[in-house]
Predict the 3D structure of the following.
Amino acid sequence: MGAVEWVADENNYECPLSMETQKIAKEELREDKNTRDQALEQMRNWIKMNPRIQNCRLDARFLLRFLRCKKFNVPMAQEATERYLLLRQVYQQAFHTLDITEPNMEELLSLGYLFAAPGRDAKGRRVIIARPGVFDPHKYTNVDMCKIHAITYETLMEDEESQVRGYVHFTDGAGVSFPHLTLFTPKEAVRIVKNGERTVPMRHKEVYGINSHPSVKFALDFGMSLISEKIRNRVKIYTSLEDAINHKLDVTMLPKEYGGTIPMKEMIDLWRKELLAIKPTLLNNDKMNVCLELYSEKAREGAVSALKQGFGCSSVGSNDTTMCGISGSFRKLEVD
């Protein structure tokens, strides 16, 4: 077998973090040059020796997103990396060809369904704004929803300052109604939330929600029950923007329509430029792949039980070679 041509090669790493961010990385994540160099070497050797990983990025920026999120606990970072590679391959419809110029993606972006505000807040974090109510569940599918989230988060995770500083989420629930809730079955919702928290290496620092309609309260409660207590404690839900402002929500990073200074359309246009600049990197990620038949059926389905067990391959049977759970997990929503 010839030498593997890796999606992105090992690179001589020059730390791009500001001095202030390096200090935060040291205090919060145990990161310094020595820890980083050793951990990167361990990650790269593990990828090269892992029979289940056929191709992967070896550049520091990619591997550090997992190491930083797991505070340089190398075995945990390795598991998160492998789980990420497996899930993005199993659910290719949602995680491959992350191209913002596709018509549905461009429409959802223009509507302001999901975008990041330009600049950073007072603590150096990017602010992600979500307006799920503008998503027409009769026009778009759950694949579209997953894909625009993947484009957004993948773009943000490429930035190393953000890997350390983390993210703030602001969601306006106006317009969300029952049809939105039927995009995913409860089982799918559980898998998405549980896998997302374990697999997507993002440090979620603060989460704010406004305009949550009483009719979807049960769904909100269900969602809250799925996330870890650590993140649950960072979530604050307000009845309205006015209520949030009365509770001292800082609106300076939000669009002008929500009390900030920059109009939403302008924010979206700036974000589109960021997405277009990173597009070649996101498309190149599609070359990463794992050997699916070396995973258990449960692991391939993203079952929560597989999350708890970790990645043992002892459970792989000889007849367990079909890809499971795909057609069922992403079905096009049929509407009368």
User: Anything to note?
Assistant: Strands lie at 53-55, 114-116, 126-130, 167-172, 204-210, 235-237, 289-290.
